Amino acid sequence: MHNDLVAALDIGGTKIAGALVDGSGGIHARAQRPTPAREDGETVMGAVAAVLGELRRSPHWLRVAAVGIGSAGPVDASAGAVSPVNIPGWRGFPLVDRVRRATGGLPVELVGDGVAMTAAEHWQGAARGYDNALCMVVSTGVGGGLVLGGRLHPGPTGNAGHIGHISVDLDGDLCPCGSRGCVERIASGPNIARRALEEGWRPGEDGDATAAAVAAAAAAGDPVAAASFERAAQALAAAIAATATLVEIRIAVIGGGVAGAGEVLFAPLRRALQDYARLSFVQGLVVAPALTGTDAGLLGAAAAVSPRLRGGAAATAAG
User: CA-based angle 164:166:170, to the nearest 5?
Assistant: First the structure.
C-alpha cells in the first residue's frame, strides 16, 4: 500500500476541519469540530486532536505520508507557531510540534489560510495553468497568497501575499493591525456593511445588515449599497494593480463570502482596474472568481505539503 495521502487541517475561528486528500484532490475521509475560539489554548488544541483522532480511525490513515495545515493567521511557519487574531488563546502556539506528536511523528507543513486557498486554486481552481497568480480571500477579513514562477510562494513565515494589509488610503481609517487605510478596512464584509450603514443604507424587515444583504440591495438598484461595493472594489483594484506591478501576476482570483456578491463586486472591480493597472505589462490582467469553494482550505493545506500535488497546475502554465 502506497503512502499517497495527506492529512489536511483547515483551522479557522468558526470550525476546525480535517480530511485525507489524495494526489488528484479526492477526499477519502472527513472530520470537523467547532472551534472553541474563546477558550484557552489547550481546549482549542483538544478540538484539533479530536479531528485528527477521527481521521486516524479511518482505514485510509495507513496511507498518510504527511500533514498539511492551513491556519488563520498570523502564522510563523519557520517557528511552527500560530497566533490567529480570532483565536485569542493561541499566541505563539507551537501547533506544528503538537500536531506532529498527535500523529506519531509525521512531517507537518504549516501555511496561512490565504496561502492555502492560493495553493488550492493553483492546483484545482481558477489559477490552474498560470505561473504567476494572486489569490485572495475576501470575507470577514482580507487575505491572500502568491504563485510565482509556477510555485507557491508562502515566504519565510508563511504569510507572503497577505494583501489585506496593504494601505490604499494614506489618510484612511485606523486598522486594527495598527496601520491606516488598509484594504481590509475598506473591502472586508463587515466594513462594506459598516460603510453602507454610515452612508444611510438601512436593512430590510428581517434586520439583516450583513455584506450579503448590502449586495442584494445593490443588485436591486440601491445606490448607497452599490456605492459601498464600488468603494470596496476600488480598494481591491488598487491593491491588485500594485501587486501586478511589483511581481507581474497574470491573474487575480477572488474567493470568500464577499465574492459571492458576483457582478455587484466584479463589475466595478474590473472597471477600477482599468484606472489603476495602466502600465503596459499589467494591462490585460485576468480577474476571476475562485472555484474550489468550501474545500479550498483542505485542498490547499494538502497541496502545500507536496510539490507533486501542485505539479498538474504548473504543467500547462500560461502566465
Answer: 125
| Beta-ladder partners of 10 | 17, 70
Q: Summarize pLDDT for 102-126 with one digit per residue, the tens.
A: 999 999 999 998 999 999 999 999 9
Quick one: which of 111, 21, 98 has its CA closest to 58?
A: 21
Domains and CATH numbers, the chain: 5-112 (3.30.420.40), 126-290 (3.30.420.40)
pLDDT, position 177: 83
Least confident of 1-5, 19-23, 194-198: 1-5
Residue 202, CA atoms < 13 Å, CB-side half-sphere: 2
| Burial of 104 (C-beta count, 10 Å sphere; 0-12/13-18/19+) | exposed
> Do residues 135 and 152 make contact, with C-beta atoms less than 8 angstroms apart?
no
**Widest CA span of the chain, in angstroms?**
63
Alpha carbon distances (Å) from 196 to 19, 169, 186: 38, 18, 11
Residue 165: helix, strand or coil by DSSP? Answer: helix
Enumerate the β-bridge partners of residue 6.
21, 66
HEC string of 45-86 equals HHHHHHHHHHHHCCHHHHHEEEEEEEECCCEECCCCEECCCC
Residue carrying the nine cell digits 470577514: 140
Report the C-alpha gap between 64 and 85 in whole angstroms: 30
Give ∠ CA 130-133-135 in degrees, rounded to 5.
125
pTM of the predicted model, to two decimals? Answer: 0.87
- What is the H or E stretch that residue 237 is in? helix 223-247
